[in-house]
Structure formats: C-alpha cells, structure tokens
Amino acid sequence: MERAELHLHTKLSDDVSVIDPTEALEFAIAHSHKAIAFTNLENVQDFPAIVHAYKRCGDLNLKVIYGTELLYMSEDGNMPYGITILSKNQLGIKELYTIISSITSDGIYHLANLDVIKQNCNNLLIGSCGNMGELYNAMAHGRNPEKIAKFYDYFEIYPTEDEQERAIYKKIYELGSKLGIPVAATGNCHYLNQEDEICRRVIRIVNGCEYNPKKLFYHTTDEMLAEFSYLGEDEAYESVVTNTNKIADLITRVTPLNENFYPPVMENAYEQIQDLAYAKAKEIYGMILPVPIGERLKTELKYIQKSENAVYYWIAYRMVKHNDRFRSLCRYSRLDRFIVRGISFSDFRYQSFAASLLLPSISLY
Predict the structure, then answer these.
(1) Which residues lie closer than 8 Å to 347 by C-beta, 6 or more apart?
(2) Radius of gyration (Cα) for the chain, nearest Å?
(3) How far apart are CA 156 and CA 89, in angstroms?
(4) Using CA atoms, how far apart are residues 238 and 173, in angstroms rounded to an integer?
C-alpha cells in the first residue's frame, strides 16, 4: 500500500516552494499515491490551476485535497504558530475561504484569526504543522502538550536529520498513541526532486529569507519509511502509510470553484443601468428618441440583460462616480459602447457617443 501526501506547497506559496501543480500530480500518479493535499502558505490562489491540472492528468483514482498552512497568534503568549488545514467536504471549502478572509498583517506576519478558525472548523481537519506548530513548541520547551493537543485532528511530523527534532517527533508520536490522535508523516514538500533544492535555496536567499536546508522534496513511500525508521518499523508504517490514508479517507472529493457563472448580486442593477442609459440618451436626443438610437439601446440592453453583466456595469459606474481616476480602467466591447457612453464611465479617448451608432449591427445569437 502506498502513502498519501498531506502537505505540499506549490509555486504560489509565497517564496517557499518551486513545485508546479501539474508536476506534483504527475508524481503522485506515477507513484500510486492515494491522495495529495495542496497546502500553500496563507493563500488558496493556486486552486484554479490545480483543478485544471487535475483534469488534464485524468487519473480519477488520485484524490486531490484542498487546504492551506496558516500562522495564528497563540492564546498563551505573543508567538505565531503554524497549523495545517484540510477541507473535508464542500462545506469545508467555504469554511476555509472564511478563514483565509480573516488573515491580517501585523507588519511582520500574516496572521489568521484564531477565533475565526475555531468557529469555522466543523468541516475541516486541523493538523499540527510539524516543527512550526504550537504542539511541537510545547514539547520542545517542556510545557504540558495535552491541552494544546485537543485542538488538532491529527499530528504532523516532518522528515528531518536533526536528532533533537527526531526526539521531539518521537514524543509527539507517543502522545498521539496515548490520546488516540493519528500521527501522520507528511513531506512538507517545497520542491519535487532532491536536485531542485538549489532552486529553492536561491529564491530564499535572494528574498532575504532565512534558509535551513532540509529534506523538503516529494518523497516516495519507501523514502518516507526510511526517513521515519527511527520510530520503529511498525510505527513508521503507521505514520507514513496507515494514518495518511486514514486521514485521506475522511475527506470527500470536492471542487474549490464552480465553473458556472456566478456574478455578484446587486438588487435592480439592470434596471439602474437601463434608467441611466435612457436618461442620458434623452438628455442628448430629446424625449422622443430617434429610431436608430432607440434600437441601439434596446440591442445593447438586451445583450447586457441576457449575459447577466449588468452588475459589472453598475459597479464600474459607481467606481467612476466615486473617483474619476477609475475611468481609464473601464474597458468595454464594441457591442456595448453606446451604453457605456450613456452612463458616462468609458474612456473618452475612444470614439464619441454618437459615432458608436456607425458600428455595424452585431447579432446576439
């Protein structure tokens, strides 16, 4: 039986990783891994790319798990710690987005709100984030870890050659066994192959970040079993294979984005645009509009209503009304230039309001 990878960063994980999502998926498929979790640092920006990469790979046996790694400020002191969050189901995706939206900056760290995490974790799995987590810190400094341990659904231990870290991970494994909390050996992957380590090193140094060389490549099952052999043969297998698959089994297949069209909802947006356009046209051409003007308005308004784009016109109109510097940001198609002139948010470097009537008619079907 092969393992599941529950902690992997891609290139969009700030400046910590050099892994391409497609390459990660291909690696997982090539090595028959049951699941792979994408856990970028403090963001979910790669989710669309992951969705499309997974579709291209076409292996439905591989489960893709969507998550993140976050920092939060501990309740027991002014220290930021890491946690790993995995979405269990579709409701978990929504909870994950709520938590991501709570992130604020204190000028040094980007921190998630711990209260928001606790209020939105019914459909999430919370991992202890290896040596970045509060559980590890408690173990390392002789604090009682059992109170902290209750916060987690599973404990994480990372590959390391440091004997002190291994000793702490061994204690974490023993605590997990005592409390009945699964301990998962995760790769904390930041580069795909061992030789790619130099790429990450360069990025970290160039950006002025601290760099500690560690084995953060995407491990095969056998490589992970070798890494955690210090736990004992049975214990290593449980952490590397049994528990990672057990955790993956708790997670259903989800999609982090819906491919249908979901524009923002603003009440009466279309009616507002329609009223503005007719008011402007009547201001210029009189209360009884010339036939070409009336027909043009009907054509464009029909397109806007059918395409459900009225809300975007209304937002753009409000932006320009609020601050004229947004005017040059507004872009429009030939089909609706007449309307955008009428509600006065287009870039006036283009053709005049009346000149748009000379455009050839465009079929809406």
Answers:
(1) 327, 328, 330, 331
(2) 27
(3) 21
(4) 10
Q: Which residue has the tokens 């220290």?
A: 79
Beta bridge partners of 105: 110
How far apart are the C-alpha atoms of 239 and 170, rounded to whole Å?
11
Residue type, 260: N
Task: Give residue 342's pLDDT.
Answer: 57
Nearest to 248 by CA among 9, 1, 3: 3
307 vs 243, 310, 321, 345, CA distance in Å? 48, 8, 24, 20
CA end-to-end span of the chain, whole Å?
54
Q: Write the pLDDT tens digit of every residue in 92-128.
A: 999 999 999 999 887 778 899 999 999 999 999 999 9
